[in-house]
Every structure is written in C-alpha cells, then in structure tokens.
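Key idea: predict the complex, not the pieces.
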Amino acid sequence: MNSILVAPSIMVGLGLFFGAILAVSQRFLKVEEDPRIEGTNDMLPGNNCGACGEPGCLPFAEKLVDGSVNVSSCTVASADDIEMIAEYLQVDAGEQEKLVARLRCGGGSRQAQQIAEYQGFDSCRAAAIVSGGGKGCAWGCLGLADCEIACTFDAIHMNDNGLPQVDTEKCTACPDCMDACPKDLFELRPLSQKLYVQCNIPLSGEVATRLCSTACDACEKCVADAAPGLIHMENTLPVIDYSAGGPATPEATFRCQTNSITWLEGEQFQDQEQIPDSPDKRYA
Amino acid sequence: MNTLGLLRRNFDHGVHPAHLKKQTEDLAIQRVPFVSHYVMPLGQHIGVPCRPVVKVGERVGRGQLIAEPGGFVSTALHSPVTGTISEIDDFRGADGQFAPAIQIEADPYATQQPDSSAGIDWRSLSLEAFIGEVQKAGIVGMGGAAFPSHVKFSVPDGIKIRHLLINGAECEPYLTNDHRLMVERPEDLLMGAEIVRQKLGAEETIIGVEMNKPEAIEILQRHIQPGQPVRVVPLKVKYPQGAEKMLIKTVFDREVPAGQLPRDVEVSVNNVGTIVAIADYFLRGLPSIERIVTVSGPGASYPANLIVPLGTPVREVLRFCGGLKDETREVIMGGPMMGRPTASLDVPVLKGTSGILAFTEAETARPKEYPCIRCARCLEACPYFLNPSRFARLARARMFDEMEQYSVMDCVECGCCTFACPSHIPIVQLIRTGKDALRNRKEKPE
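Result:
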C-alpha cells in the first residue's frame, strides 16, 4: 500500500521543486523584451523574403523598433500596412520608391537564333553549362523558368515566347530572381522609370542582330534622340542615367530598329500573350 | 606478377561501359591539312588566361609565341600555323560562352616548317629551369583536364616524388588517341618519361595501360631498354581507371585523401600525350601546337585518329573525315562519359580536346526518367564514395548549400552514377548544376 505511493510522491515532490525554481527564475532572471517587437512582427507580411536586407521579418521588426531602419524598407507590405506600422511605432514611414524586377533581355524564342537543341534537366543553370544551352546569344534569357520557380511571390510567369513576365503588382523587389538567373539578367528598377534597355549583348552591328532580331546593334540613335546626357553608351550598350539627364521620354525609342530600347507602361513583354502555367506547353 | 596479384590490382567501385574502340584502334594517326583560319582561345587551360604578345596584322611563324602566361597557374600559347594575326576578340568556345581569343589567318604559300631550334639540352637543366621550359612550351595535361604541367611538376619543399606514373589507361569508350601514341611513338614516350623522371628525381617510371590495349603493352615492353627503370603495368579494364586517384589506388594500392594531390603520396601522374609533348619540346623544340584527336562515333562517316593543329575549327576536322552522317544529332568534345556536347561546330580544337564524337538519335535520345527507387547503384558506382542520388535530389530542390555540406566539390563528374542509374536520372548534370551555382555564389559575395 505504502510502496505504491512512493513513486507518485517523489514525482510530485520533484515537480514542486522544479516549479519553484522556475517561478523564482521567472521573477529574477526575466529578460525585458520590448512588446512592440512582437506587435510589429505581427503586422509585417511574414514572408521572410529578405528584400529589406534583413534575414527575416523578426530581425527587421527589431531594427524597426531600434529606429535603425525605415518602415518603407519593407517592399512587400502594402502602403496601408506601412502606415499602420509607422503609426504604431510613432515614427515617420519614410518614402520608398516601388521597385520591380526587370529582365535585361527581350530575345524570346521568336527573336533569338537557336543554334542547337538542349535536352536535359529543365533548368536555366543546367542548360547554361551544356555549351550555353543552344541559344546563339550567349548572354540572353534561356527561358527555362529558374526565376519562375525561385519567385516567392508568384510574380513571374513564363510567356509563350519563353520569357519571364514579371507581374509588377505582385513583385516586391526581393532578390530571388536575381540570385536564380545564371545569366544575371534581372535588375531592380523603380517602376516609374519607363525607358528601359532590354538587351545584354556585348556585340555590335550585324554580329549582334544576326544572333537575335531584338538585339541592340549599338547604333546610338537613342542617345541622339533622348535629352542630352540622359543616355550614354557603355561599350556596346546604351545606359540610361536618370539622375544625370533631362526627362525621359518615349522619343528615344522611336528610331530603334530592333526595339531593344523600350518604353514600359507597367509590365514588360505585354504585347506577348501569356499562356497557362503548364510545364509541358511552357517550353514548346 | 602472379595471377592473384593481377586480380587484386583494382580500385573500388566504378562501372564497365562498352569499350567501343574497334572503330579506330587500328587506324594510324593522320595529319589534318592546314585550313584557312585558326582560333586560339587565351583560356584553354585551367588557371589564369594568357596575355597576348602579338598585335593584329602581325606575321607569326608556326610555333612562335603568341601569348605569354598570365600568372604561375597559366601557360604559354604558340601559333599553330604560319600566317598573320587577323583578330584578337571574343570568340565562341565549346562551353557556349564567348571568351578572348587570337584568330590567325594561315598563309597558304608558307611551308609551315616549324620555326624552332633543334631542341634543348635537357640534361644540363636544373629542376626550376626545366619547369620554366615546360611552361614556356605551353604544355598542359593532354588527358582532357588541361591542367598546366609545370604546376604539377613544382612540388613544395619537403615532398619528394618517388614514382612517375604515366597514364595510358584511356578508360573512356571510343577514344584511341593515347593508344595510337603508345603504339606509334613508344621511343618518344619512353624518352619523354626519362626526361621527366630524371628531372623530378623519381626512382622509377610506371606506365599504366588497360588490358584492352594488348598491342600497346607489348610494343612498350619491347622498347624498354635493359636497365631502364620503367615498368608497364597492365590494368583491369574499368571506368574511371584513368582518373589519377584511381590509377594510384590500382597501381600502388594507396588512396589519395580527399582534398590532397597525388604528390602527397609521392607520385606524379601524367598522361601519355603530355609526356610525348614534353619529348617533342625537349628533343625537337616543338611547343604545344597540335594534339591527337580521335574522331569517332556512329555519326562519323570516316572515323580517324588525327594530328590536329590547335585552333582548327571542329567543322574543318569533321570535313576532313568526310563530314557527318545525316542522322547525326549531337557532337561531343571529349569522351562520351565526361565530354560535353558543343552547340556550334565553329568552336576550335583545344589543348584538352581528346576526341570529337558524333552521335545519332539512338545514342542521344533522352530516356524516360523515372523516380529514384533508392537502389543505391549510384553509390556502388561512385569511385569517390559520395552519395550521388542525394546530390541529385538536393540539386533538383535547389538546395545547393546542403550539397556543399555533403562535399559535392569532391565529385569529379566522371559519370559513373548516371551510367549506373536504372531510372535514367541525369545525376551528373544535376551535380554540375549545383557546383556551378555554388561557384557563382562564391564569386559574388553578398
């Protein structure tokens, strides 16, 4: 009779003992955490995408409470959310221009010359190391959707021309696609900058246009047509310097023979119809 | 050596692909005629690219220096032809990327007599001078990796090379260029081996030849002079016998630890072609301006073993061999196990191009891929004791950092795992993808 009570009483005794230790340590060793960190974290989108430069949303919330970063550094949260967080923390929301990922290549399967057929693992990086993936242009988009797979926000979809179409609404300017692209074709640009060079070819003249019908042939007409100083040539490609020159206008694109410089109203490749997201048809 | 010893001599794992050398093993080496243009990429070896020392429009003689080494792990480049430099620009290479290269327009009226002296008195050279000469000659590993030979010969203090191991395994199917060299130029091979052995101060030379080349073994054995410290070791036929670590395991029953080099076990491994190139330079003053290439495969009209001047477009080499058959679907530079397909036939033959193989639909059709059934055949095939199926899974999930943790960088991409896989998973391609991603990540730190 007695012996059966020994075990439970030891357990209860131990429980009370450790419980007492916990209660005491809770009282004397507790770490004060700013409750606003938790609150801010709850208001952040919680994607942990890293677009703000922090490892995730919680470290970003900590820095927000410190005051060392600006609320607008979060590119994912909507304007309302940002305002709400700024109000909650009693800080200025700051201003952040909406950035989107732009592809520095307009040469889809209809424009770029194909010199060989690639068969194998459907990945741009895998194709790029097999003799360049069979595309004549060694610098262009391979169209095997590494960026589409990498995108956290479902903002990139391949169109029927084999080019990734970035949904400017969904794009949060996190660097996922930039890291995934083996050709380093993505760059983050403010949505308001509409004049854009959609080519990455370091060749000029016929050598370039033979590889891709929309390649920049370095004719420099856009440089002449734009406001002075706005566009300058770096090697064989025009570079648009929004900080230096006058206003960017669509005039610079009018005389471009190959449409490698474009005026973007919203998305890139809008004239190219989007097809449903089926892996079989995607690479047809 | 008794039969039992012969049976024991082997490395673990590996695969047994068909030899497929019958097409070309009895064809004597022929010389490809000179063509009109040659393209010499500045980075056709592992390491730093060369620096051009010529200008456009300059006339160069065959064998004249056109680019000097860009650093220690780099080598010199010589003109394969007498002619004029027509362009120094970016040209498409076999990897699909454009890279700096020197284009030479051949002079159709020149004699193409190499512009070289009668050779070099190698006996009086010190080891340092010998290494310098090897670099000046532009000699790289001719087996396919194109690693500069002088770097291999430069051993740090405290390490002594005791054995010179000459790699005549030629374990890749189809390729017969090393075989023909051993059959046709055994004196040069043995002489080159003697030069290297004496300069490195090694005790003996061992030539490892796979047993599917009995003719080469017999001819080499006949040419060894009495008292010469050279042994020809017949090897069991198994892929990848020609990987230097595997060859050392077979011949010396010694393993080279991961991350270490053959010199750490007192061995220097050199390919047959490299040794003959060294003999060519020290005996005749001929730098590395041409190499032996096997043209073979079911798509080649007339398979051949050819002496090809470096920089010759693949198209011209194939044209000399009667062109490609209509049903050819793919052209591979190198052997079928490790070689890479080329997207353009205008790419030049390089120092590391051991073969040009043409394949038809039957060989290149992509087999239907099935899920991994965890049969572990790839583990049993991997001579480096890695786990290829795990790499494949991680690469597909794009978990490249995890691949690095499982030491994917020790993989030499020999292709055994893909060959062994019953589900036809392109394991090596997935591994290459992962390695490429890791390398790029290292190049651009955040």
